[in-house]
Amino acid sequence: MPLAIFDLDDTLIAGDSASLWLRFLVQEGLADPDMLPREEEMMRAYHHGSLEMDDYMRFTLQPLAGRSVDEVAEWAARFIDREISSLVYPQARKAVASYQRDGWRCLVISATGEHVVAPIARSLGIDEVLAIQLEIAGRHYTGSTTGILTFKQGKVDRLRQWLDANGESMNGSHGYSDSGNDIPLLETVTHAFTVNPDARLNAHAVAARWYRLNWTRE
């Protein structure tokens, strides 16, 4: 079964779910407003390709430490309904539906935490997700991560584990992303598609002759 692999943030949706999630937590009184300027600074480093993802996750997971899995799932449901549903690109919905109709296996790989990515993906009809794994003890989040972080080369490493576990291959695969951080991932697929690519990805895509898509919310 061929694979269609999608990044989430600024690829399937017009925004970054991790940043939007933190703002949502602040609005709900679940996170300190003083976290926002530091998170914005970290996101600038992300777009420049210099972010240390361990640092980002350690910082942004502070509001979840000690919270139950079920409680956070309720937060995520409200978050998706309020903040995410309207940000999904119509072209993304059509692409996912088309792949599924044609018998492709769709997979979301994201550098955002699985507590956010998995329910967003399910809202798009995609059940299979590779995202940053959160450590859980006694059905409560510890505020730490576990396993390989799905960021840059980490996306490729986790994908290879997933391929082995599921008996799949990359033959004929398609991959979608907006970010230069995902160049390693897009280099593994048979056909790479850039969605509103940033400058780093666009320059690489031109040289590699990858497809360029312009998705809008209109």
Q: Could you please describe the fold and organization of this structure?
A:
- α1 crosses α4 (69-84), α2 (35-48) packs antiparallel against α3 (53-60) and α4 (69-84) packs across α6 (114-123).
- The protein has helices at residues 17-27, 35-48, 53-60, 69-84, 90-101, 114-123, 153-166, 183-186, 199-208; strands at 3-6, 105-113, 129-137, 140-146, 174-177, 191-195, 211-213.
- It has one domain (3-213): HAD superfamily/HAD-like (Rossmann fold, 3-Layer(aba) Sandwich), CATH 3.40.50.1000.
- The protein is α/β, with parallel strands linked by helices.
- Helix content is 45%, strand content 19%.
- It has nine helices and seven strands.
- The model has no long low-confidence stretch (mean pLDDT 97).
- It has a seven-stranded mixed beta sheet, sandwiched between helices.
- β5 (174-177), α8 and β6 (191-195) form a beta-alpha-beta unit.
Keywords:
218 residues, alpha/beta, Rossmann fold, seven-stranded mixed sheet
Fold blueprint:
Elements (H helix, E strand, L loop, with lengths): L2 E4 L10 H11 L7 H14 L4 H8 L8 H16 L5 H12 L3 E9 H10 L5 E9 L2 E7 L6 H14 L7 E4 L5 H4 L4 E5 L3 H10 L2 E3 L5
Parallel strand pairs: 1-2, 1-5, 2-3, 5-6, 6-7
Antiparallel strand pairs: 3-4
Helix pairs in contact: 1-2, 1-4, 2-3, 4-6
